[in-house]
Amino acid sequence: MKKKMGDDHTNSLPDECLALIFNFLTTSKDRNNSSLVSRRWLQIDAQTRTHLTLNAELDLQPFIPSIFTRFNSLTQLVLRNNVKYHCSIEDDDIILITSMFPNLTRLKLCGCDQLTDSGMAAFSKNCTKLKEFSCAFCSFSELGLFELLDNRSQLEVLSVERLGFPEREVLSSPPKLHATKALKVIKLKQVYRERLFIPLISVSKNLKTLKLLDCHDGYWDKALEMIQDDNCLTEVHLDYVYVTDVGVSSLSKCRHLNDLRIVGTDCTNVGLIRVAQNCKGLKKLYVGSGIGDEGLIAVGRHNVNLEELILFSVDATCDSLRVIATNCQKLVRLELCMNHTITDNDIMCIADNCVALKILSLAGCDVSNKGIEAFALGSPNLAEITVTNCKKVTREAIDRLRASRESLVIKMGSSKTSAINIDN
Question: Within 10 Å of residue 58's Cβ, how many Cβ atoms?
């Protein structure tokens, strides 16, 4: 039979085929628009949607049964609330939601200011398959968090930001943790009581990623010292955390370490040298102030497999950069920000020796046209260069470089733009 113009041609497709097509819709907006086409599309969208993000305000309560009855295949759920304007859902609500989804593997809570430790303990027993848990700006305390850890032996990823209140002391002593064997990622941001998290870090034997960010209060050396010798750590980020050479030197026992960030700490060359000498598989390194030539020379000598190097406000000169440029022949990304000791001679050394370099970023460095124009012939694999707030570099020099290497992507930013990628 000849089909009319208004016929729905997808009616001839089995539900399974239409469901596969829906899986190619990557945004919630596309999903929502498609579900409006027909009742059949609405039903298939509900049956195949595995990710859902909701505003977790208190007025969500009446709609919880209908929403979560419709989307009965969810495995990943994000509940967000703006605590400045609205109260969030409460304990009974999160308990009901998690009871309806025994297959939930990923849960993120943001701004849920009405959830308590009792609610955490109760709903964590419903999430028997939970592998990733993230919370930010929630009002429950560490007690509720550790209840979750003790109930969920399969948890692999834990991310905590601004938990509870700094002035409220909840636990008088560190908890006894039993269910942490599966933990592979721990990210702590703006947490206030480091002594409660130190046991968690030390007993997580399969931990691969540890990120401590903006944890200004507390003394975190102890957490790094207690990492076991047979650890699995491959990635460690220490950003604006009170850590000294004692803690950073302890990372030298992380023989699998390949990604290290040390920014805004009290670390000096001493700690970096210990790491460079023992962690020879290092591929990504981001260091900040407090580091100078001595530490970077050790990196150049011992970490010959280095692929990415970011120096932020570091006292580096041609002495260390020459060693790195000569020995680290696999270096493909180099970013220099606010390094006022770096001059044209250093940049010319990079252009002459870094043959594998693909991405170069310069921000706030004391380089001129002479240094930039060295890349007209140097670093033959260079694909992108960004120059930001380098006052001695003119637009004319950039134009000449662009004319000599037409395939090279050149970006020249203003003083308000940072060329350095600070991604946590």
Answer: 13
The proportion of the chain whose per-residue pLDDT surpasses 70, expressed as a percent, equals 82
Whether this prediction's pTM lies above 0.85 is answered by: yes
Cα separation of 330 and 266, whole Å? 29
Angle in degrees, 0-180, between the axes of helices 91-99 and 117-124, rounded to the nearest 10: 10
Pair 88, 61: CB distance under 8 Å: no
Fold of domain 50-183 = 3.80.10
Q: pLDDT, tens digit, for every residue of 169-209?
A: 555 555 566 557 889 999 999 987 787 788 888 888 899 99
Q: What is the 3-state secondary structure (H, E, C) of the chain?
A: CCCCCCCCHHHHCCHHHHHHHHCCCCCHHHHHHHCCCCHHHHHHHHHHCCEEEEECEHHHHHHHHHHHHHCCCCCEEEEECCCCCCCECCHHHHHHHHHCCCCCCEEEEECCCCCCHHHHHHHHCCCCCCCEEEEECCCCCHHHHHHHHHHCCCCCEEEEECCCCCCCCCCCCCCCCCCCCCCCEEEEECCCCHHHHHHHHHHCCCCCEEEEECCCCCCCHHHHHCCCCCCCCCEEEEECCCCCHHHHHHHHHCCCCCEEEEECCCCCHHHHHHHHHHCCCCCEEEECCCCEHHHHHHHHHHCCCCCEEEEECCECCHHHHHHHHHHCCCCCEEEEECCCCCCHHHHHHHHHHCCCCCEEEEECCCCEHHHHHHHHCCCCCCCEEEEECCCECCHHHHHHHHHHCCCCEEEEECCCCCCCCCCC
| In the chain, where the domains are located | 50-183
Q: Which of 271, 232, 237 is nearest to 255 (CA)?
A: 232
Please give the Cα distance from 184 to 40 (Å, whole number): 41
Residues in a beta bridge with 157:
132, 185
Provide CB contacts within 8 A for 365, sequence distance 6+.
336, 337, 338, 339, 340, 342, 347, 390
Kindly report, residue by residue over 298-339, the tens digit of the pLDDT.
999 999 999 999 999 998 888 999 999 999 999 999 999 998
